Amino acid sequence: MLKGLMKNRWLQIPVQIRKGKTIHSLSSRLHRVFQRLHKYPNDIVIETASVCNLNCTICRSVKADLGRKNRFMSFDLFKKIIDDIVPVCNTIGVSYCGEPLLNKDIFKMIRYASDKGMCVSMLTNGVLLNAEARKGLLDSGLNFMAISMDGASKHTYESIRIGAPFETLVENIRLFVKERSHRRLSYPAIDLQMVVTQKNIHEVNAFEKLARDLGVDRAYLKSLHIDRSKEDTEYVKNLEKDYFVNSTMMPTRYVVNKQGNLELKDKGLCPQKVRTPVITTDGDVLPCCFDIFGEHVLGNIINQRFLDIWNSGKYIDFRRNLAMHRKLPMCINCLPSNYKKINKILF
Question: What is the pTM of this model?
Answer without folding.
Answer: 0.86
